[in-house]
Design brief:
About 5% of the residues lie in helices and about 50% in strands. It is mainly β. It comes from Cryoendolithus antarcticus.
Length: about 700
């Protein structure tokens, strides 16, 4: 009976530190022996933690921790991510990732809160038929909102993409795990406080998760989405107004996503005339021929292996572009998402790929454009995705299109000045030299002249600067937005295109005059080999990738520090942090084996992931590309997970200095995987996506 765990006691119920103390305080005479034993064990545990980890800011003397026991009969799949602040129905404030094995740090057990079930729906035959419900603000005051997405599925099914809207505004983009015959489940918590203004009004809630079921692919996704509303110490200042750049189909219950390039992702918006700050966010996800955009080859080489078929092209470089009235205002170079059926499915059970359950959006500060946008007129916002067209002799230009297809939406988050004020100023000056591209390729042949190998490389650099003077109610200020990005990708096809290797690196700096700054690095190595024998085929793959993001100041979305600020023990050190640093790496090897006659398949592999999350401080002077130099840091969260053949064999975590273990259930199954995609070959069943 460990003091750090919930313990169920006959005649008493579930015990936590606080409940055991309350029972002891209100007991006259002898205390129940089980409660007394629990408290004695808890005291010993607290003293041990204080002796062994005296610097822990979440030592149990200040806040309580426990691990939820793993009781689920279904295989629990999960994404590794920093814990989120939420509240449970009894008013207990927790930092947790919501899973049945979650580390839970209890912050406060006396918060007023309320909960709502927003969606309870089984996505089965749901292509073109999203869930549509009515959202009504809850009957309680709140400045924080956390969503809990819990999904269960059984059978065989592809991974699917899901998007949640409030009206015409996308608020959450996710994807599913692939189920097993015995069933899987997952829970993901998301801090939704950035959308606070939307939660204060009635709106349609639309959850679009297209799925199909037949005799082979039998898995429905039984989905529950709940919201928790509460009040907590908060440094977030959510936007006053959120405006969509979407297909605007919410009024008819449709999904408001653009499909690019077949759609023109464009909409006219009229901003409030007293706007003080404005940030454009863009959600962009490649699908079908563009799912593995990072493995595509040069356009000049797509017919290198005619016996194999046409390769996917426009190079492995992608740029998401935002235009205001036809003028480029900023760009995003996307993070390479790999879904749970991608490359080799055995890589992603039970640990899914980085961001697979929460596809992040990119931010572009358009405050320098406010003197134009606050003139009372409608202005056009357009989003495009571009690859490269190359000449075949080492030069390349933006293609202004891609293969099919990308799912795109955008939003403008607006913070307002005083009522009645009209924002004026100078039109933005623009420093935007043409992007620089260097490409090369070479083809090797065998004795009969047949092409057998292809090697290609792409390097790209881009810098942008927009600056204007804004007349706000408190006076004149300079508004600026600066971006500097670099990209490289080397690809190699061998064995007549049956083996492919890609090594990619994307790095960038975004710096705003508002104090917000971001530095990111997305390294990726991917190897895949495809072999056939009779009616069997085998795919072997190796993945080694990472995501490193440092943010300073306040953007649109939470940095992660907000979840820790509610702890009294941590709150005292949070104000010293000026930002956050998230670093994660994921590497693995896996094999997929399938029989085309019997339509059976299996997959097995090893995946390891490490993640750290730090609070950081920065010097006042600018570092590279205007990004401040980091002067100090403190680890708030660390986790290491190792999964072998569908079973977690190691899972350790440290939460603000306190080590915590995880409990996991039995082994998962390696059978019944749906191979949804392979680099260089696209989806095997793209029509079922």
């Amino acid at each position: 009976m460990g003091g750090t765990e919930q313990t169920s006691v006959d005649g008493v119920g579930v015990l936590t530190y606080q409940r055991a103390i309350d029972i002891a305080r209100n007991t006259e005479g002898d205390l129940d022996a089980n409660v007394a034993d629990y408290l004695e064990s808890a005291v010993n545990h607290i003293q041990s933690n204080l002796d062994n980890y005296p610097d822990s800011a979440l030592a149990p003397a200040q806040s309580r921790q426990y691990i939820r026991a793993a009781t689920a009969s279904l295989l629990e799949v999960f994404q590794v991510y920093p814990p989120v602040l939420t509240v449970i129905p009894d008013g207990t404030l927790e930092i947790t990732d919501g899973s049945s094995t979650a580390t839970v740090a209890i912050i406060d057990s006396h918060r007023k809160s309320c909960q709502q079930t927003l969606v309870s729906y089984s996505f089965a035959y749901s292509y073109g038929q999203p869930f549509v419900g009515n959202y009504t603000p809850p009957p309680c005051s709140f400045n924080r909102v956390t969503w809990n997405l819990t999904v269960k599925s059984r059978g065989r099914q592809f991974d699917r993409l899901g998007i949640v809207y409030l009206g015409d505004i996308e608020v959450f983009r996710t994807s599913t795990a692939e189920p097993t015959a015995n069933g899987i489940e997952w829970t993901y918590l998301k801090d939704m406080t950035s959308y606070l203004s939307l939660f204060n009004r009635q709106e349609k809630i639309i959850f679009d998760l297209g799925n199909l079921i037949d005799s082979t692919y039998t898995g429905a996704f039984n989905t529950t989405l709940t919201a928790s509303y509460f009040t907590a110490t908060d440094s977030i200042e959510p936007a006053d107004v959120i405006l969509p750049v979407s297909a605007n189909k919410g009024s008819s219950g449709g999904a408001s996503v653009f499909t690019v390039p077949s759609d023109t992702a464009s909409w006219d918006l009229t901003l409030p005339r007293n706007a003080l700050k404005a940030i454009f966010t863009v959600a962009a996800t490649g699908q079908s021929q563009e799912e593995f955009w990072w493995s595509n080859t040069l356009q000049s080489e797509i017919n290198t292996f005619p016996e194999y078929g046409t390769l996917y092209g426009y190079s492995p470089f992608r740029e998401v572009q935002v235009f205001i009235d036809g003028i480029l205002a900023g760009v995003a170079w996307p993070f390479p998402i790999i879904f749970t059926g991608g490359v080799v499915p055995g890589l992603w059970r039970p640990v899914v790929g980085i961001d697979a359950f929460d596809l992040k959006e990119d931010e572009i500060d358009i405050t320098p454009w406010l003197p134009l946008l606050c003139d009372g007129n409608a202005h056009n916002f357009t989003i495009r995705v571009s690859g490269l067209n190359d000449s075949g002799n080492g030069t390349a230009t933006l293609s202004e299109t891609t293969d099919s297809y990308w799912l795109i939406t955008g939003k403008v988050f607006v913070w307002l000045d005083k009522p009645g004020h009209i924002t004026t100023g100078t039109l933005p000056s623009k420093v935007q030299p043409a992007p620089s591209f260097q490409v090369s390729s070479s083809v090797g042949t065998v004795g009969n002249g047949t092409n057998s190998t292809l090697t290609y490389s792409v390097q790209a650099q881009r810098s942008l600067l927009f600056q204007s003077t804004i007349n706000a109610s408190r006076g004149r200020k300079i508004a600026s937005w600066r971006q500097s990005l670099t990209f490289s990708n080397t690809g190699v096809y061998t064995d007549g295109a049956n083996t492919q290797v890609n090594t990619q690196q994307t790095t960038g700096y975004d710096v705003s005059s508002s104090g917000y700054a971001k530095h990111f690095s997305y390294p990726l190595y991917a190897f895949s080999s495809y072999t056939t024998q009779a009616d069997n085929f085998t795919i072997q793959a190796t993945i080694d990738r990472g995501k490193d993001v440092q943010t300073l100041g306040q953007g649109v979305f939470p940095s992660g520090l907000e979840s820790f600020s509610a702890s009294n023990a941590v709150h005292s050190i949070i104000p010293t942090f000026q930002g956050a640093s998230l670093s994660t790496t994921q590497n693995g090897n896996a094999t997929y084996i399938a029989n085309t006659t019997s339509s059976t398949s299996s997959s097995f592999g090893i995946t390891e992931q490490d993640m750290t999350f730090f609070g950081i401080t920065a010097d006042s002077g600018a570092g590279p590309y205007g990004f401040p130099a980091i002067s100090g840091s403190r680890e708030l969260f660390e986790r290491h997970v190792l999964a072998v053949n569908g079973t977690v064999v190691a899972d350790t975590e440290t939460l603000v200095g306190s080590p915590v273990g995880h409990q996991h259930g039995g082994p998962g199954s390696g059978r019944g995987f749906a191979l949804s995609g392979l680099p260089g070959r696209g989806r095997k069943h793209s029509g079922l996506r």
